[in-house]
Batch of 2 targets.
Target 1
Amino acid sequence: MVELVVQKYGGTSLQTTGRMAEAADRIIKETKRGSQVIVVVSAMGRTTDDLTTLAGQVSSCPPAREMDLLLSTGEQVSCALMAMALKAGGVEAEALTGPQAGIITDFSYGDAVIKEVDPEPVRSRLKEGKVVIVSGFQGCPGGHEVATLGRGGSDTTAAVLAGALKADRCEIFTDVDGVYTADPGTITGARKYEQLDYESLSALAELGASVVHPRAAAAAEAWQIPLVVRSSLTEQTGTTILPGTWSPCSFPVIGVTSETGLSSFSLHEGADRREIGREWKNGLCPWKAVQHVKNRLYRIVVRNEEAPHTKSLLSRFGGRPDTGRALVHVIFRSKEEKQKAGSFMRDLPYTQDCFMVETQPHVWSMDVPERHRVNICQALHDRCMEKEAAPISAAH
Ligand code: ASP
Ligand code: MG
């Protein structure tokens, strides 16, 4: 049986034409094994940031449609170059933009959701024996339009294409060699998962572990596509996410993650939570976390972009914003495991100006000053790993 493999290469894996040539070699090797290959590419290096800066130089408020037209070019550059590199290496390849590849999205420019994939454009080229290179992070909302999927959206393109074309696996090539219990770049002692289940990957992705986009994790789960997260710089096997697998480590904590770019609001005494909730729903401005402490003081955490809107929404409750905040999360396997662990996070250093907040039932979260984020994550992760030495229970 010929295997169908989707390989996605992120920005760091395509930073230079040299890196691109290395990725091309890897793709060629996969074809020599007899596989059919679909390649999804991100923009080279920091291209998306650079294009955003350019837009900011001509407009303080760039129109969403033209912004997407601009940003989608980053992936198209990678895509065209990759097809050229493969052809130069003697492999038949064809480059497609997201719309050309049959990726249909909704009209939410800048954060579009993939609604449907027409598998034909990719399938017909595979049948011709070609490697198909698809520009990640984009699709067609209708007509001849192009919309982007939000930052990090190329992962989603890869997982959704893998699902729609019933691929045997989807490999995400990035700059880390797998999924870890914490960010291995900043946290000493972070441990790599050899295998992981979809639910745990989604929990990590949704709460700031930037290794895979949360929508990609959800798509892989929906289609039950085996997902492999690995480094393009090494031959390490990475982390495999498979239906029905479980990590050999039956530790109650999945990982320690954090989210940055947040603002927090403290609301004065007497603010009625239900009333705030109503205000919130009407304003369509979801909070990321909320704290309800004894003295009826509320703490509400939102993304920086939502801070001005939130401020006007909460003005009658006396909300004032506190910027430069981050959320740190300890993600447990279940609500029960979180309860069992009880107060093991007490007595941490850096508790000044930190607030325990509610996010999800199986997650222990704290609203902290951004500048202490890494130290606090480290302390929490150390604490969790101490516990692992004496496992609390064999979950799952
Ligand atoms: N180039 C886009 C970004 O930087 C999409 C991606 O890399 O997945 O966010
Ligand atoms: Mg990414």
Note: Residues 328 and 377 are 7 Å apart (CA to CA).
Target 2
Amino acid sequence: MCGIFGYCNFLCEKSRREVCDTLLNGLSRLEYRGYDSAGFAVDGDIEDTLIIKQVGKVAALRKLTDDQPLDFSKPFISHCGMAHTRWATHGQPSQINSHPQRSDDKNEFVVVHNGIITNYKEIKLLLEKKGYVFESDTDTECVAKLTKYVFESHNKELNFTELVKTVVKELEGSYAFIFKSTHFPNEIVATRRGSPLLIGVKTQKKLKVDFVDVESSDNSFATVEGQDMSRPALNRSQSRAFLSEDGLPQPIEYFLASDASAIVEHTKRVLYLEDDDIAHIADGELHIHRVRRSKEDNTAPTRSIQTLEIELAEIMKGSFDHFMQKEIYEQPESVVNTMRGRVNFENHEVTLGGLRGFTHIIRRARRIIFVACGTSYHSCLATRSIFEELNQIGTQAELASDFLDREPPIFRDDVCVFVSQSGETADTILAMRYCLERGALCVGVTNTVGSSISRETHCGVHINAGPEIGVASTKAYTSQYIALVMMAIQLAQDSKSSQKRREEIIDGLYRLPSDIKEVLAIDAKLQQLAVEQLAQEKSLLILGRGYQNATCLEGALKIKEISYIHSEGIFAGELKHGPLALIDETMAVILVMTQDKYYPKVQSALQQVSARSGNPIVICNTGDENLKNHHRTIEVPKTSDCLQGLVNIIPLQLLSYHLAILKGVDVDFPRNLAKSVTVE
Ligand code: F6R
């Protein structure tokens, strides 16, 4: 959705140029989350806050910054800055709607926000009645103005943490915020609910301990109307992590971000904020408080400082032109990473450590319900039938948004599996909470350690695909698919009757990296196909059946989202129930016709299409004599039927990439989309 970034240096001198560059570079790393406008706030020269914002990508903001008549050499021994890259939800992309949003024309309180405030209209109305004049169409502006209002209505007596605590108690919706204020120079407050936020810590000396205490302070201090001014004594225990041995303050830098990819180039030491945490950074110390301390609050008393496992090279394009291209080409490796240490190819066994202790419960499930969105949903569709076949448990795949609309009955003996690359997709998170409330066992399958879905589910599988930065999901799809196949195998491991089948699939998994490489090797042919035949098309149908239904939907999604060519995945079994009407000599069709038990039925679909003068391009197994001389073919190696979708999707990913290039689309930043959809 949006990306937020904050940078605080303490006793560690940086020029204004260095501060701005750190903020702008942080935004560039987060740009995949939203890229219609961007902005940042830093200290001015007279104890004021400067805001610089621009429509378009971070490069445009960088240029605007360079054009400012500022003294970029001005040094700051300590400083707090914040930045934002936007994917518009409330209000068009424009300078005024970009973040940071501000409380007033003196920039007393400035805020960057990722998420949506659902009660912003009510707050805006209240503030307008109090005389506040709004300048933007955003929901975030009401937060900046509410902060000023609360501060003033409490006679400016609240400290920064108390103030933000009071403000966020009034908010409904989802958010990750960073606040900065001229009233609290060199301080920053960050908080989250439902949107991700983590903090990187960089010090010269080792930290004393690898956790930060959550500081306790009872009750609430204040309300918006200001009736409750009783202030309980703050039980402040300075976090042990930042106590220095000699009692002298030590130089330190903090990096706050929606995503680890913006932090890893500075430090690998990070802590993930929990929902309702309030992080206050001042005088080189990081203090964590809770918005509410209640008996039901069962979060840990500390936040551990963890070591990021991603490498900088993983978030760089290297020799590739685009992240998407790099990620497609990484698949022979990323699929191995998903299986590493989990699949024993010799004794044909799967061990998913994250499900340890839960497999017996899952085996007894009445139903398995997959819930996901977009590409992640397609990975569920692709693997649903192998779950059913191996485990004989009814397995359904649900689109999270539709699931939420329907509010279906969920029972304690259901097992609900939430599949999400980011682990932060709002609809999937809401569906997860819905199922948690109803007592179902919830399993998370994500690519993001520390994400909401991986933290809030009872157990799960991390797909280990490495960071996926291109907006169009490619390697995460294949890794999710494999993670689900592994899960299906592990659940069936005690069954003698399915042993042969499991062995055949595990042998297929072993060959997968080389199968994928074989398809990548025909990239030039696919590029030629895109140039000669497909780039001119207005519409493209992708037909298949059985295991390949998911391939068709996923291939069509890839094509439409990055080349803007209309494309539809059609279940071949449905052809004569309507879609056949679209077929004539002008309609572009790709038919997925690899050899499995549905082959004769797909052959009949091919005949139906040919009989209507259609001339499909056929994705088939290498050397398929039935097709070779009659159709333009894309040949792919044959594998186990339930894994064939992993191989068949590769040419469609590559075709979509080439079509996007031919259409002049900015592949990694397709219009109207963002990588992580943290709003409903
Ligand atoms: C398409 C794509 C999206 C995501 C969907 C869910 O290429 O990436 O359809 O799959 O937005 O996102 P996650 O997997 O993060 O929940």
Note: The pocket of fructose -6-phosphate is lined by residues 373-376, 420-422, 425, 428, 472-473, 557, 561, 676-677 (CB under 6 Å).
